[in-house]
Amino acid sequence: MIIHVVNPNSTAAMTEKARLAAVACAAPGTRIMAGNPRGTPASIEGHADEAVAVPAMLALIAEAEAEGADAHVIACFDDPGLHAAREIAEGPVIGICQAGMQVAMSIAARFSIVTTLPRSVPIIEDLVAAYGAGHHCRRVRAADLEVLALESDPVDAYRKIAAQIRMARDEDGAEAVVLGCAGMTDLADRLARETGIPVIESVTAAVKLAEALAAAQFRTSKVGSYAFPRQKAGGAAQGLVANL
Ligand SMILES: O=C(O)C[C@H]1NC(=O)NC1=O
């Protein structure tokens, strides 16, 4: 089985973190194919970065489909382009935000999310509502650090994230915490140990969900919403699905 993990930003170090997390949790016989586009924003912090990154991400997903990928993971916590990706792919496409919440709701009655910048909070709050997790999610918190600080200043980043997790535990009534950034994969085990609360690393959640769906032969429904894009001049079908 092949699971394609795509980081839509162009920071290879974050892609490698996601790849390592995926390889660490993948079952024997599952091959991880990880990559990121060139020329997209170095990090995705808000709607405009997302909009700029999605076309190149979709092209990588179309290529991976043509190369035999059985499922895809979008390794960015805004789940950018998730629904567009499901239109062009036949294999299941899993966003790490949605997967992280699904795991949280499967192991705890209430959870909080800790992400990076305050500007990402309303974006994730909208996803909480869209994914039907509103009753279970106590709060979306920001550690108030830029995404690339996870690479450039990991000690300070860890301290800020740990402080938010403790507040989620003590003030929100959270019974689990979802890490709200693909760049946090390497912090999860230590954070869980030091805060005493289950910490859900979202890339792992997404890879295991993708693996389970692919193993059970579930494919993206092409009846209705996620049908392949219609053929038209300049349409997605012309540039992307044509590769399939
Ligand atoms: O929006 C965020 O804070 C997190 C999101 N941005 C990014 O470049 N990778 C991510 O997971």
What attributes characterize this protein structure?
single chain; 244 residues; alpha/beta; four-stranded parallel β-sheet; 8 strands; binds [(4R)-2,5-dioxoimidazolidin-4-yl]acetic acid
Determine the fraction of residues in helical runs and give it as a percent range.
40-55%
Ligand inventory reads: [(4R)-2,5-dioxoimidazolidin-4-yl]acetic acid
- Please state the structural category: alpha/beta
**Gross geometry:** globular
Give the secondary structure arrangement, pairings included.
Blueprint: E1 2-6, H1 12-25, E2 31-35, H2 47-66, E3 71-74, H3 82-88, E4 93-95, H4 96-107, E5 111-115, H5 120-130, E6 137-142, H6 149-152, H7 154-172, E7 176-179, H8 188-195, E8 199-200, H9 202-215, H10 236-239
Parallel strand pairs: 1-2, 1-3, 3-4, 5-6, 5-7, 7-8
Helix pairs in contact: 1-9, 4-9
The chain binds [(4R)-2,5-dioxoimidazolidin-4-yl]acetic acid.
[(4R)-2,5-dioxoimidazolidin-4-yl]acetic acid is lined by residues 9, 43-45, 76-78, 115-117, 120, 147, 181-183.
Can you walk me through this structure?
46% of the residues lie in helices and 14% in strands. The chain has a four-stranded parallel sheet, with helices on both faces. It is globular, with a radius of gyration of 17 Å. It starts with a strand and ends in a 5-residue tail after the last helix. Helix 1 crosses helix 9 and helix 4 (96-107) crosses helix 9 (202-215). The protein is an alpha/beta fold and 244 residues long. The chain has helices at residues 12-25, 47-66, 82-88, 96-107, 120-130, 149-152, 154-172, 188-195, 202-215, 236-239, and strands spanning 2-6, 31-35, 71-74, 93-95, 111-115, 137-142, 176-179, 199-200.
